[in-house]
Amino acid sequence: MPDQHLSLDYTGYPSIVIPLDSATGLMPHSHPQHQLTWVPDGVLTMETRDARWVVQRARALWIPGGTPHSVMPSSSCEMLSLYFEAEECPLEWAQPTVVDATGLIGPLLRYLTDLPNEQTDRRARGNAVLWDLMIPMAVTMMPVVLPTDPGARRVALALKENPADTRGLDAWARELAVSTRTLSRRFRAETGTSFERWRALERLNSALPLLAAGQPISRVARTVGYTTASSFITAFRREIGTTPAVFFGGSGTDLGQVSGG
Fold first, then answer.
1. Is residue 67 predicted with pLDDT exceeding 90?
2. Calpha distance 65→205 (Å, rounded)
3. Taking Cα atoms as reference points, which of 231, 165, 26, 27 lies closest to residue 244?
4. Which pTM value belongs to this model?
5. Dist. CA 217–CA 246, nearest whole Å
């Protein structure tokens, strides 16, 4: 994500609900307040400089104050956000943190976002319950580092646009009129990983919002460049450490097609 971003301040706005659709999003911005975001229906992706997360009904995301981030919805949804002044928050989470939004968390987030701003006493009591309930979820962050070399960056952007592109490093090197070794070296030096693993991670990045939206695993696999659902699940388990079914906890995903392979 570019270093340039808007600086906003939500002092006096403890909660905001923003309607979004798949054609709109929020450009990179930051604010001094901590933010807790949840999507009761639909899916969106929140991205920082070096990682991105899927936010949906089962998962809320904590963004520490001062962290530049952008928002990319995958479908029409309402983004519910609570904002907390640092001196009023007992949590000391210095990094974006996924929070389990099942159980009481979801209804409590809805309650707090529906409260009028002037209801400070009720909000304080609700926040105190929220602090007790918030449980971090152990999830794998997906790197989104783009190379700066013009040729390598051209390849990376093409794969972000079409993760199903099957061209290997040799084919891309021929298109750029450079050696395969040169292109490989540039990718590793500027992204910290090999071309093959970068592509695999980008394919999973593209797949996560589709899975969260409930698309069948076989369709998602084809969309992001895998010939079979089982090969996609193998790659998912290798990089994330679990299957899509377990990762999403059955939240709308076609579990019958996810769990095989």
1. yes
2. 25
3. 231
4. 0.68
5. 13
